[in-house]
Design goal:
The structure is a single chain. By secondary structure, this protein is α/β, with parallel strands linked by helices. It has one domain: 3-Layer(aba) Sandwich (Rossmann fold). The protein has seven helices and nine strands, in the order H-E-H-E-H-E-E-E-E-H-E-H-E-E-H-H.
Length: about 200
């Protein structure tokens, strides 16, 4: 009889322990979900190849276990942006990254001073509190992905060097939600042969 009671008590303790562990894991998982979600808005009709920038954003999301909510916009008013930010906050998104908003978002006199919005932009730096962009250059700069014909000219010496705007890095860094201005890097034959940027030119 005593053994039966002991077994019953042990079983109850085990069930309580399992319940406590399960609750703890669910709470931990819930907290992770809340802090690991971000929203990215791309222009719907963008003539420029954004593949390298998209790769940078996706790789950051993968490296930091961030779930992406992706939108594509052809046009967006200030009120629509405000609504989107509000909705995404409800979904526990910790920030909104607007990719080249100059192609779909209307300008407004006071700009967009949201603390949880960053713009990847060439022309709207003054409109946002946080932005990611490239520093201006007097010389022509090539943006990733670079055409094979241009890279071949550097390899064979027809071009001594080119300035490279690393859109992959711009996409990756933009996910940190802090203002950043990247300088173009010089790419010459020696740098190419060193293999330093091979991963960026793959595919």
């Amino acid at each position: 009889m005593r053994q039966s009671r002991k077994k019953h008590a042990v079983l109850i303790l085990l069930l309580l322990l399992i319940a406590l562990v399960s609750t703890g894991l669910m709470t931990k998982h819930s907290k992770i979900e809340k802090r690991s979600r971000m929203t990215v808005v791309f222009p719907k009709n963008e003539p420029e190849d954004l593949s390298a920038l998209q790769d940078g954003i996706r790789d950051y999301a993968y490296d930091h276990q961030v779930k992406l909510d992706v939108w594509y916009k052809e046009q967006m008013s200030a009120e629509e942006l405000k609504k989107l930010i509000k909705e995404e906050k409800k979904n526990n998104s910790k920030g909104v990254v607007l990719v080249y908003p100059e192609n779909y978002l209307e300008k407004q006199a006071d700009g967009y001073v949201y603390k949880d919005v960053l713009a990847v932009t060439d022309r709207m730096q003054k409109e946002f509190k946080y932005y990611a962009s490239f520093a201006e250059s007097k010389e022509k700069a090539y943006r990733l992905p670079v055409k094979t014909s241009v890279l071949e000219q550097v390899k064979n010496g027809k071009k001594k060097e080119i300035l490279l705007e690393n859109t992959y890095k711009l996409g990756y860094e933009s996910m940190k939600m802090k203002t950043i201005t990247l300088k173009p890097v010089k790419l010459d034959r020696e740098t190419m042969e060193s293999g330093k940027y091979d991963a960026l030119f793959a595919g």
